[in-house]
Design brief:
Blueprint (H helix, E strand, L loop, with lengths): L4 H11 L5 E6 L2 E6 L2 E7 L2 E5 L5 H6 L4 E4 L3 E6 L9 H27 L10
Antiparallel strand pairs: 1-2, 2-3, 3-4, 4-6, 5-6
Length: 124
């Protein structure tokens, strides 16, 4: 679904209290980045934020809807509560949860890359 430039600007403004937020087009949508980490996405003029096992319960408790990739692929991205979409102060806690999840995901990827290979294991 198309994303209007005005919605991209609105989302970046809404999330700017988190820090410098950049929007980058990708796969027909827009990725939202802060400190080089993707923590959100835009699809069809809707904002979705990254979650993980630690932050997802907050989104579920608030009744947030999961972003499902076309073709029914479930993701870790959820739409924040409606009241957060018009007020940067109300959005900030949700954005922080998303950035925290992105930081943990990056740390986990880094730990995997640094993990020693077992003896006899073949490189991929």
């Amino acid at each position: 679904m198309a994303i209007s430039p005005s919605f991209v600007d609105h989302a970046v403004d809404l999330l700017s209290a988190l820090g410098p937020v950049q929007a980058r087009r990708m796969f027909g949508g827009v990725g939202l980045y802060c400190d080089g980490l993707m923590f959100g996405l835009l699809d069809g003029d809707e904002l979705f934020l990254k979650t993980d096992g630690e932050t997802r319960p907050w989104f579920l408790e608030a009744g947030c809807r999961m972003w499902i990739y076309p073709g029914m692929y479930e993701t870790s991205y959820y739409r924040p509560p409606d009241e957060a979409h018009e007020d940067a102060e109300a959005m900030l806690p949700w954005a922080r949860l998303a950035l925290d999840a992105a930081v943990r995901a990056q740390a986990a990827r880094g730990a995997k890359a640094r993990a020693p290979r077992r003896a006899g294991a073949k490189a991929r």
